[in-house]
Amino acid sequence: MAQTPPATWQEHWFEHNQLLNLKFYDNDVAVYYDNDVSSSVTWPYTYMGDVWRYVKNLYGGFGTDPHLFAVYHTGKYSGGHPSTYFDASHDNRNVIDVGPGPWTSGGTGNDLDISTHEVAHIVEGASKGIKGSPAFSLWGDSKWAEIFIYDVYLGLGKTSEATRWYNLMQTSTADLPVAGTHWFRDWFYPIYHNYGGSQVLNRFFTLLAQYFPKSGSQYSRDMNWGEFVHFWSGAAGVSLKPLATTAFGWTSTFETQFNQARIDFPFAYGTGVASVYKHCNYGGYVTALGVGNYTLSQLQNMGVLNDDISSVKVNSGYQIQLFQDDNFTGTSVTLTADQSCLVANNFNDLASSLKVTAAGAAARVVTEIPTDNRLSIYPNPVTNELRFTTSQSITGSTLRILDVMGREVLQTRFITNSIDVSKLPSGVYTLVISDKEKHFTRRFVKS
């Protein structure tokens, strides 16, 4: 049973000194007004509860008290601010405190935007039981909030608000890291759209909590730009260095930071059928590779340095061919099994390009995978989580996976743009997404 919020609450932070009155509460939200907020304003009762429930379902809990304390003023304090359960200043509660008002829109437009914006700060500052926002110095007060607001509107089915916000964000710019940077348009929305929607946002905070330096229950320092791109690449499952180059520019400092981050936090980007490592015995940074041909520039965009591979892992049924020179030229070595140190092959720190191919029957399977341009899937081959995007909305669709004999082995309803295939045996499958009007199919290899 949720705790019962107090009937009144005396503000005692910053310049705030209002006596707040509890207007509504349920198991997830407690809404407080000062005496200047009209009692006819009721939309926060439902909306803020829906937002907080959505947040907790996606990111997990935020402390022992399940409530979001949503505080509303009218004509005071200009904007708003958040606080989290880590902060004694707000009685260790998750709080949004907003002041302009008069909140009479009925729950549309800027009234929603400012309220949701403050919740974004709670998420960035207290997710996964860790206090702090290591990326705040990079994305500032609003850039993370922009994609958060968009995701919340979509998640709550407020498609008109999501469209309004999307259109508004097309011209939104910031001076970080350079003047005129389009954070939403060129960075966050492409990540969100292409690599898992709400789940990619959650994966970023999961990786932070797992890997980033902490002192007790709080982060011990801010991130640098290279670390920022590395952690978002981990969340997306692909190297985002090319996207970062387009969105932010790419300096020699970023490059140094990025390469160091991959050493300091050696998680792979997604899954593949082969992995290459910086050091012998699978040490240093790791890059997961799917079937394909990788020139030096492609490897560098994925974070693999020239002449820097010292060990490899190769899944059964696949092979990796390392070339001493770019564009698949020069001396080469082909490996069909794990190699803990390429010194034994006289190929340590020599690779400048490489090919990953399927061997034998597996090779024939891969070349037979058809293309449906309306449906994109990745990674392919896949080990755990198959992600997908479509050219049309698939809300309400059924997701089915068929084996090579056409037998259904998994069925679910569309919730997010991903599906867990970790329990499927290795083999070739077909993903089928369908409703009454649309039908998409795409084959993939489960490694």
From TrEMBL:
Q: Where is the Beta/gamma crystallin 'Greek key' domain?
A: 272-316
Q: Which Pfam families match?
A: Por_Secre_tail (PF18962)
- What keyword terms does UniProt attach to this protein? Repeat
Gene3D superfamilies in the cross-refs: Crystallins (2.60.20.10)
Question: Which spans are transmembrane here?
Answer: none
Its domain of life reads Bacteria
Under the heading SMART domains, the entry gives: XTALbg
| Annotated family | Belongs to the beta/gamma-crystallin family.
Query: What is this protein's record name?
Result: Beta/gamma crystallin 'Greek key' domain-containing protein
Per the UniProt record, the source organism is Niastella koreensis
